[in-house]
Amino acid sequence: MGELATEKHVRYILSVEKRKDNFESVVMEHLRMSGAYWGLTALDLLGKLDTVDVDEAISWLLSCQHESGGFGGNVGHDPHILYTLSAVQVLALFDKMDVIDVDKVTNYIVNLQNEDGSFSGDMWGEVDTRFSYIAICCLSILHRLDKINVEKAVKYIISCKNMDGGFGCTPGGESHAGQIFCCVGALAITGSLDLVDKDLLGWWLCERQVKSGGLNGRPEKLPDVCYSWWVLSSLTMIDRVHWISKEKLIKFIIDCQDTENGGISDRPDDAVDIFHTFFGVAGLSLLEYPGVKPIDPAYALPVDVVNRIFFTK
Amino acid sequence: MESRSVEGEEEQRRVPLRERPEWSDVTPLPQNDGPNPVVPIQYTQDFAEVMDYFRAVYFADERSPRALALTAEAIQFNSGNYTVWHFRRLLLESLKVDLHTELKFVELMAAGNSKNYQMWHHRRWVAEKLGPEARNDELEFTKKILSIDAKHYHAWSHRQWVLQVLGGWEDELEYCSELLEEDIFNNSAWNQRYFVISRSPFFGGLTAMRESEVLYAIKAIIAHPENESSWRYLRGLYKGETTAWVNDPQVSSVCLKILKTKSNYLFALGTMLDLICFGYQPSEEMRDAIHALKTADMDKQDFDDARGEQNLNIARNICSILEHVDPIRTNYWIWRKSRLPLSA
């Protein structure tokens, strides 16, 4: 088996931030905040966060914040809960939470909770269990989980549970590994994992591993490196990760590397991008790959960062 | 429609905004995010220009037809930009645009790339405004997308919303059957089928639908015993009624039938294990069928040859077989074995 081309991935990640001249930069423009989170977290997991100019990153990040407290995906973009979490996660990585008005960000998120406990993504009202996770994760990092109705939030998530043990985006929606991560993550953070049918869900999740060793997100779909994160983190949170073949999954992720120019793709021989590079590295982290720092499966941040948030103040 | 290239003009014939007379009074507003390198690709130059003009009208809050046309151009370059979609909705309201034409616009955008959250959210906003009269349009729209990608998550999600808010449940079970006929492995269609039988106001709920649906699932299982979806559907039909599931001879019969074929029996064997764990008493015929699956490379330690013994032995043997024939999940089956009750 090949090895993780750490140096090349670091160079690739650093180059993505600088590049503004290709297709990827065009489609990334509106979600640059998430791009920053993926890139910076991957760098930290690889032990290279110190290669980044912190002040430059923070000043750009702050220029994306709105009066409402929410963050946009880039300068001049409307605020959205997605990018608000990414911004808070980046601040956590840099241990710079003191540069924002925590109560203001909290208010922005609190106002997005609906009567039934669900969360909208922004003022336009799109509802999805992704936003439940984001709200809960973000407020937990900010030590403000008590500002929302957690009981109702949990109840809504449970209403999205399916007969296969998985979760969908809204009640009745098909189980999907990405949504499962969000729901299980939110339940883990709120201490509600007893509401998950762990054995049933664990079996569904381990059925996601296909012959090549990779994981898919739904039955009969192609494997994709990003599910190394969504499936694996969920299995880790419900303590069932040993049910899959770790060796085969590691091999699949390693096979998705561009060993020449760095970066990781969705499947072997496809084009790399920052999203899959992060999820590949994060997956390897959960698989305890040597040289990669451990990541917290619920907060999607390095374990030492999560420890700093919760055990130092 | 509003925008030039929406009409299908070639990319290279696109007239830059700075050369269009109707935009001569607007000063484009460049993105202020540090030094921009010279962009060598035409595509990104055009995109950058559109966004510079967009920022200008957005910050001036210009509610005009040309602003609406500009959002269409910006969306064509990047349909994931939610700020552009937001502004477009404000414009649609301010200009009192006929929302039927907006449905057509979304359709055109979906033809390019239908996998972005913003577009679907926009579509729902339009449909919600139009109300029940949009029902058929929405059902047809999702049907069209699903005919290209039958597992399209956004399309299914939108369709479920349409059914619940605008109605149209009447033909949905038939639609699920059609899709499953095309591809019996389509988990999305199975999920929709479950959604319909458990939530449609036209059926009496899960229990009332069980009898006919069990037959449907069993037929699908026999045709393709390796289909994860049909097995899970069958199990789901007994949600919250494990005893009914254990005692229904149809369930054990289909397992036996598959096990006897000695091929594609993983789910049948897994189901048998679950049944035994919940108190099912396997018949002599079932025991023989399981015993016959013992593989040559399983030694005495793996497989308990004591025939006619306790159910625990059978459950153990099932786990041993699965450890061998489902190697990628060996650890799962070992765990199942370790968790077997002392007297299954």
From TrEMBL, chain A:
**Superkingdom:** Eukaryota
Q: Which reaction does it catalyse?
A: geranylgeranyl diphosphate + L-cysteinyl-[protein] = S-geranylgeranyl-L-cysteinyl-[protein] + diphosphate
Q: Which GO terms describe its biological process?
A: gametophyte development; root development
Q: List, alphabetically, the GO terms of the cellular component aspect.
A: Rab-protein geranylgeranyltransferase complex
- Catalytic EC class: transferase
Under the heading InterPro entries, the entry gives: PGGT1B-like (IPR045089), Prenyltrans (IPR001330), Ptb1 (IPR026873), Terpenoid_cyclase/PrenylTrfase (IPR008930)
EC number(s) reported in the record: 2.5.1.60
Q: Name one GO molecular function term.
A: metal ion binding
* Keyword Ubl conjugation applies: no
UniProt keyword Zinc, yes or no: yes
Concerning Pfam families, the annotation shows: Prenyltrans (PF00432)
Prenyltransferase alpha-alpha toroid domain: residues covered = 4-300
Cofactor stoichiometry and binding? Binds 1 zinc ion per subunit.
Keywords (A to Z) from UniProt: Metal-binding, Prenyltransferase, Repeat, Transferase, Zinc
Its required cofactor(s), as named, are:
Zn(2+)
Q: Subunit notes for this chain?
A: Heterotrimer composed of the alpha subunit RGTA, the beta subunit RGTB and REP; within this trimer, RGTA and RGTB form the catalytic component, while REP mediates peptide substrate binding.
Its biological purpose is as follows: Catalyzes the transfer of a geranylgeranyl moiety from geranylgeranyl diphosphate to both cysteines of proteins with the C-terminal sequence -XXCC, -XCXC and -CCXX. Required for male fertility and root tip growth.
Protein family according to the UniProt entry: Belongs to the protein prenyltransferase subunit beta family.
Task: State the protein's name.
Answer: Geranylgeranyl transferase type-2 subunit beta
Organism (species) = Sphenostylis stenocarpa
UniProtKB/TrEMBL annotation, chain B:
What PROSITE patterns does the database record attribute to this sequence? Answer: PFTA
Taxonomy, superkingdom:
Eukaryota
Spell out the Basic and acidic residues composition-biased ranges. Answer: 1-23
The EC number(s) this enzyme carries: 2.5.1.58, 2.5.1.59
GO CC annotations on file: CAAX-protein geranylgeranyltransferase complex; protein farnesyltransferase complex
Where does the chain cross the membrane? none
Per its record, what are the GO molecular function terms? CAAX-protein geranylgeranyltransferase activity; protein farnesyltransferase activity
Q: Which InterPro entries match?
A: Prenyl_trans_a
Region Disordered, as annotated, extends over 1-37
- Protein family per UniProt: Belongs to the protein prenyltransferase subunit alpha family.
The role this protein plays is: Essential subunit of both the farnesyltransferase and the geranylgeranyltransferase complex. Contributes to the transfer of a farnesyl or geranylgeranyl moiety from farnesyl or geranylgeranyl diphosphate to a cysteine at the fourth position from the C-terminus of several proteins having the C-terminal sequence Cys-aliphatic-aliphatic-X.
PANTHER family, per this entry?
Answer: PROTEIN FARNESYLTRANSFERASE ALPHA SUBUNIT/RAB GERANYLGERANYL TRANSFERASE ALPHA SUBUNIT, PROTEIN FARNESYLTRANSFERASE_GERANYLGERANYLTRANSFERASE TYPE-1 SUBUNIT ALPHA
Put simply, this protein is called Protein farnesyltransferase/geranylgeranyltransferase type-1 subunit alpha
Organism, per UniProt?
Answer: Sphenostylis stenocarpa
Mind giving the lineage of the organism this protein is from?
Eukaryota, Viridiplantae, Streptophyta, Embryophyta, Tracheophyta
